[in-house]
């Protein structure tokens, strides 16, 4: 009987942790975060470029837009932050952690539900570079006053 109670407790705790994790992802989705579901050069500088690559996707067009740095590859599981949505075109303006400019893609390529990346990890804003953490924060430089620096007799520090 004690074994059955222990087993039921373990199962219920596991389900509780899963639900709490789902709430966490729901909160991220409410803040505008989405997970990429498509693999290809579908993140473009302009809405027109995104329409062109999605409507007429051929190897020649893909090569052209990537060479001219008009579009960037999206990889499934990558987290993005949606800045603006264009419901008429069904497109979203977004930002990625490693790219400094905003990009456009179709909203259908983004999911409010978490998607695992190629390593089986669900990206969050903290581990993707969208939000700086304490490890990646830029600290101000120390003053370069060398008058208080110690030097040895030969003049080297």
Outline the structure in words.
The chain is α+β, with helices and mostly antiparallel strands. It has a domain at 30-131. Helices cover 32% and strands 20% of the residues. The protein is built from four helices and seven strands. The chain has helices spanning 2-30, 47-55, 59-67, 125-128, and strands at 33-36, 40-44, 71-74, 79-86, 91-95, 103-106, 110-111. The strands form two sheets. The chain has a five-stranded antiparallel β-sheet with strand order 6-5-4-1-7. A two-stranded antiparallel sheet has the order 2-3. The protein is elongated, with a radius of gyration of 23 Å. The chain starts with a helix and ends in a 29-residue tail after the last helix.
Summary tags:
32% helix; 157 residues; 7 strands; alpha+beta; 20% strand; 5-stranded antiparallel β-sheet; two-stranded antiparallel sheet
């Amino acid at each position: 009987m004690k074994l059955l109670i222990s087993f039921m407790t373990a199962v219920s705790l596991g389900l509780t942790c899963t639900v709490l994790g789902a709430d966490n992802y729901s909160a991220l989705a409410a803040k505008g975060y989405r997970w990429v579901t498509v693999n290809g050069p579908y993140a473009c500088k302009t809405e027109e470029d995104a329409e062109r690559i999605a409507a007429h996707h051929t190897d020649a067009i893909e090569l052209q837009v990537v060479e001219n740095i008009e579009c960037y590859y999206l990889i499934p599981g990558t987290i993005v932050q949606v800045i603006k949505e264009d419901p008429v075109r069904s497109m979203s303006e977004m930002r990625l952690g490693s790219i400094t400019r905003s990009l456009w893609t179709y909203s259908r390529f983004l999911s409010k539900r978490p998607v695992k990346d190629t390593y089986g990890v669900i990206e969050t804003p903290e581990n993707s570079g969208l939000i700086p953490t304490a490890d990646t924060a830029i600290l101000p430089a120390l003053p370069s006053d060398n008058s208080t620096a110690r030097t040895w007799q030969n003049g080297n520090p």
